[in-house]
Amino acid sequence: MDEILNNEDYKKINSKTKVITEGRTNLIVLEDSKTSKKDIVFYNPVMEANRDLSVSVIQAFLNEFDREEFLICDPLGGSGARGLRYANELEFKGELKVNIGDINPSAVKMINQNLKLNGLENVTVFHEDANVLLSKNFKLFNVTDLDPFGSPVPYLDSGIRATLTKGGLLCMTATDTAVLCGAYRKTCIRKYGAVPLRADKELAVRLMVGCAIRMASKYDVGLKPIFSHVTDHYVRTFLVTERGAGKADLAIENLGYVTLNGEEKSFKSFEEGYEKGYGGPFYMGSINNTKIVEDALNTAKTRNYSKKAVNLLEYILNESKIEQVGCYDIHEICSFIKKLVPPITELMEKLRENGFIVTRVHYNPYGIKTDAKLSDIAVLISEYNLKKI
Ligand SMILES: C[S@@+](CC[C@H](N)C(=O)[O-])C[C@H]1O[C@@H](n2cnc3c(N)ncnc32)[C@H](O)[C@@H]1O
Fold this sequence. Notes:
By secondary structure, the protein is of the alpha/beta class.
């Protein structure tokens, strides 16, 4: 402790810090954080909901298995908020241990301070490059959480290798959303080995999942998403690692290409190969597991986590019940068929009256997921327009 207090870096940190509470965890953070790479130690209060969701989803994942110990690695720890919340808030009868690392010495000091503040004894802190920390722990972690600045791809291979455990969970965030959404096509091809589409934001998650699946398959491991979302400036997914060549083949079979004609999407399988005009490979299977989302929602509500997290889980629970790649954007459809835009709730009601299931999506205020075809929606929009004449 004395060593930390007398350290110049710590004094620099200490002069500008405050204590806040996130979930059930207290955290020393910088008072004047700019939430940029230039901060002495990174902490982003906007990501509280992200961490609330993460604790809730990992709790749901933990509840699924009977285990004696549960090892988590947060190799890009920042102020330690994420890893410390896992160590402090996950409820588990067995032994729960968390490794937190960061390459920035000031971050490591702050993580140690936060560790003491919460009186936690189940956390080990490492001043280490994330790839080194993960590579040293081949097949060790039940959960690895990659939360870098920008793209998780530089850490993905070592992250997968560290999580090749029975029933492992690989979580990752990407903040290079513009790349994944097609604003920087060449960068996306270079980093993710996939062609992006400037379309539905859900395709950004599906592209990132597809990239991880292709990377994991060489280890005869399949990855299966159990929870995914696109929020604020980032894309996040939670992938269960399933060992065996068969599981890896199954994951690959779920990859495919997409092309767009207005709001209509057409698909091609991975084996058919890339064709000009298509984007991908994307993951085409379910990106959310209803049971996990239900359980996570329950946790978030009982623990009084942020409204934002609860709200997102409620949306995603409904989305998880409809198998549709992406959504229909009502404004886009109306602009394409040159019709007035009906109130979204009215259109949803009409779809239900016609026997379809429908829900709004968390990432687009004009988006709906439904088992109706685009032509069914267009008919209902036209009927609404006739009424308005
Ligand atoms: C986005 S911040 C992490 C935020 C944190 N997970 C949270 O939830 O508050 C990314 C962190 O990665 C650290 N970092 C950057 N490159 C690294 C590397 N190669 N190895 C380990 N840490 C690294 C940075 O110092 C920074 O603290």
